[in-house]
């Protein structure tokens, strides 16, 4: 993959020469990359001779190379904080919360609380939060997230966690409290979810 990233597109022969292994060995590895959706094959016609099969990486392969998004996000937030103040940063987090609320609210319609908790867990899992939920004996629910994709940001800007909690309350139509938070050194982000008392 590194070779294709740095020098691709390449033929099987060129890969074999660069790696110092047989074409058969390279073909086996490239076939596996294709099956996993990490490499693609493009046939290039030549003026003379047989067409060449050129291999390159797919967009999906980009996830296997180092990224520095959290540092960029932090730098941009610090710059905004420095030039416009903390309130401007808070406005950004609130805007994100409103956008996510608009995006996910339709998924919660006509569902009871347990179904909404299950749907929220699925939403969080699709975002990489490694979430799971349980129903407690008293009829409340617990949602745990074992990964926080925005942890580096949340450590410095607690408003990110506050907005997530408020988002959960709005999506679930329930009382949500957080008893553990990874940004504060916890093993997970743990939320207690209770039905709202009828008014």
UniProtKB/TrEMBL annotation:
| Cleaved signal peptide residues | none
Q: Name one Pfam family in it.
A: HTH_11
Q: Which UniProt keywords apply?
A: DNA-binding
Superkingdom, according to UniProt?
Bacteria
- Domain Helix-turn-helix type, residue spans: 3-37
Q: Does the keyword Protease apply?
A: no
Membrane-spanning segments:
none
Gene Ontology MF, one: DNA binding
User: Has the keyword Oxidoreductase been applied to this entry?
Assistant: no
Q: Spell out the PANTHER family in the cross-references.
A: HTH-TYPE TRANSCRIPTIONAL REGULATOR SRLR-RELATED, TRANSCRIPTIONAL REGULATORY PROTEIN-RELATED
This protein is called what?
Transcriptional regulator
What is the native source organism of this protein? Paenibacillus rhizophilus
């Amino acid at each position: 993959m590194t070779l294709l990233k740095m020098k691709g597109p390449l033929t099987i022969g060129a890969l074999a020469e660069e790696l110092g292994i047989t074409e058969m060995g390279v073909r086996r590895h490239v076939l596996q990359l294709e099956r996993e959706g990490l490499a693609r094959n493009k046939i290039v016609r030549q003026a003379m001779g047989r067409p060449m099969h050129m291999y390159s990486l797919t967009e999906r392969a980009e996830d296997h190379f180092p990224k520095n998004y959290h540092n960029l996000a932090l730098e941009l937030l610090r710059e905004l904080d420095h030039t416009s103040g903390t309130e401007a940063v808070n406005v950004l987090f609130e805007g994100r919360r409103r956008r996510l609320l608009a995006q996910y609210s339709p998924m919660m319609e006509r569902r009871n609380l347990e179904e909404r908790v299950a749907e929220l867990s699925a939403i969080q899992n699709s975002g990489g939060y490694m979430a799971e939920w349980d129903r407690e004996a008293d009829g409340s629910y617990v949602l745990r997230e074992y990964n926080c994709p925005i942890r580096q940001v949340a450590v410095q800007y607690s408003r990110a966690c506050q907005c997530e909690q408020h988002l959960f309350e709005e999506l679930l139509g329930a009382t949500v409290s957080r008893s553990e938070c990874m940004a504060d050194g916890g093993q997970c982000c743990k939320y207690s979810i209770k039905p709202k008392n009828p008014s």
